[in-house]
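Page 37, continued from 36.
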């Protein structure tokens, strides 16, 4: 596709989305230029994954528009997508390197031509996410975290200009969270791709993002992290008093329940698993 000159990589104008008879978010204006890194935060069911699906054209907006590189429709190889994790069954024999190869030519009919260049691209993508040691293993034999690293390699191999990541750090141990975050961020810096990164824990990417979109029960807020991740803004979005704590450089968002308990809200979750819906209940503060 020939991009419109100087068009933003991603642009949403007055966008609203309703699914299952419920409005998830509305009046969303968002512009990402080349090299932007956006974190999308919010409780379970806020519509974070649905935002990605709307960008992919899989669900229709109720109102407004989405443009990618200036065009109303663009998926193809301009857009890389790391879906929310679904595990491969144990019996799946597809090799990791073949899955990654689909990111290059999976949209074409027929078997791919095994060229040296193709193999080199696959090896490079696997190396980016530290997955080269299990390149020839069947997907069904890999752990959840290993499968995730292969999926990320698959999303990067086509050298997309917009990378959509739906909780890419799920199932990864802390060491691999850092490695995968670095792989995505290095890719962004090298290529000027824009990144949309849905997460329940902003901390692994806090030093890398330049914008945060917080989808809350009472609207959304978009801006630089220090303007969005504040007690005042999140209290307003949740309609309950929320404290944003900085604990040794990690952001923890805590809502008082008035009965001595507190709820840890999803700018930080204690584990890489989903917190209980809509927020994870923690012990007495
Ligand atoms: N195709 C659909 N039809 C009807 N409702 C849908 C559809 N897809 C999603 N929903 C609903 O939209 C809401 C938002 O879902 P979504 O997966 O976008 O939330 P999320 O913010 O990503 O949540 P989580 O943090 O749990 O992943 C949910 O209540 C979900 O059940």
């Amino acid at each position: 596709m020939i991009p419109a000159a100087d068009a933003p990589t991603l642009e949403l104008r007055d966008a609203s989305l309703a699914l299952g008879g419920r409005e998830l978010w509305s009046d969303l204006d968002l512009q990402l230029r080349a090299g932007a890194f956006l974190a999308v935060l919010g409780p379970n069911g806020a519509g974070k994954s649905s935002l990605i699906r709307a960008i992919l054209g899989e669900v229709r907006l109720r109102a407004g528009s989405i443009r990618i590189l200036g065009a109303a429709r663009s998926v193809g190889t301009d857009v890389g997508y790391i879906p929310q994790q679904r595990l491969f069954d144990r019996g799946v024999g597809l090799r990791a390197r073949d899955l990654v190869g689909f990111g290059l030519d999976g949209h074409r009919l027929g078997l791919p031509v095994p060229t040296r260049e193709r193999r080199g691209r696959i090896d490079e993508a696997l190396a980016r996410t530290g997955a080269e040691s299990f390149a020839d293993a069947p997907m069904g034999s890999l752990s959840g975290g290993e499968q995730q690293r292969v999926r990320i390699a698959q999303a990067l191999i086509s050298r997309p200009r917009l990378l959509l990541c739906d909780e890419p750090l799920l199932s990864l141990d802390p060491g691999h969270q850092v490695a995968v975050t670095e792989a995505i961020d290095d890719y962004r810096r090298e290529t000027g791709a824009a990144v949309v990164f849905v997460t329940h824990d902003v901390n692994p990417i806090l030093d890398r993002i330049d914008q945060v979109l917080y989808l809350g029960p009472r609207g959304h807020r978009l801006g630089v992290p220090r303007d969005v991740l504040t007690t005042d803004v999140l209290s307003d979005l949740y309609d309950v008093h929320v404290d944003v704590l900085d604990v040794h450089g990690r952001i923890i968002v805590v809502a008082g329940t008035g009965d001595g308990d507190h709820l840890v809200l999803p700018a930080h979750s204690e584990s890489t698993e989903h917190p209980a819906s809509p927020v994870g209940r923690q012990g007495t503060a």
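Residues 1-78+160-225 form a domain with the Rossmann fold fold (CATH 3.40.50.300). Flag for discussion at group meeting. The CA atoms of residues 44 and 277 lie 6 Å apart.
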